[in-house]
Amino acid sequence: MKIEVPEQKKLIHTTVIQIRWGDMDAMGHVNNTLYFRYMEAARIQMLDEIGYGVNPDGEGFVIANAFCNFIRQLEYPGDVIVKSYVGAVGRSSFDTYHELLRTDTGEMVHANGGATVVWLDFRAQKTAPMPESLRQWLTSP
Predict the structure, then answer these.
(1) CATH superfamily of the 10-139 domain
(2) Domain map of the chain by residue range?
(3) Residue (of 89, 81, 87, 92) closest to 67 by Cα position
(4) By C-alpha distance, which of 98, 68, 100, 85 is closest to 1?
(5) pTM for the full model?
(6) What does each of the 141 residues of the chain score in pLDDT, given as a tens digit?
C-alpha cells in the first residue's frame, strides 16, 4: 500500500547526503532501512540549523510514526538530495514529508516519505506545546 504525500506542503529544507558503500545490501542497492536514516538526518539537520536540536534533558521532538514509499533503487556511488517539507502543524506536532532524489538524475524522485514529529517534555514524558517561534517558522509563507 502506497501512502500518499499531500499536495499542500511547504518546502522548508534541502540537504545532500553521500551514499556510502556500506549503505548497500547484498542485492547491490541501498538497504531500505537507510532511506529512513536519510530522512532522519535531514530532519535533525534542519532542526539543528533553526535552533531546535536534540536536548534530552529538556524538551524536543520524537517521532510518532514514519513511512516511506520506495519508487526507484538508490545505488552507490552517488549523492542523495533530501527535500523536506512541512504539512499540517498542530499545537504539539507537525507532519514532515521528504523526497529523495539523486544529484545526477534531475528531478526524478527515488522515494518519498515522512513522519509526524511530536514536541515532548522528556522529563515528564508528556507532549507539550511546541515553542511559538517554531510554530511561526513552520507556518510562515
Answers:
(1) Hotdog Thioesterase (3.10.129.10)
(2) 10-139
(3) 87
(4) 68
(5) 0.91
(6) 666 666 788 999 999 999 999 999 999 999 999 999 999 999 999 999 999 887 888 999 999 999 999 999 999 999 999 999 999 999 999 999 999 999 998 889 999 999 999 999 999 999 999 999 999 999 987
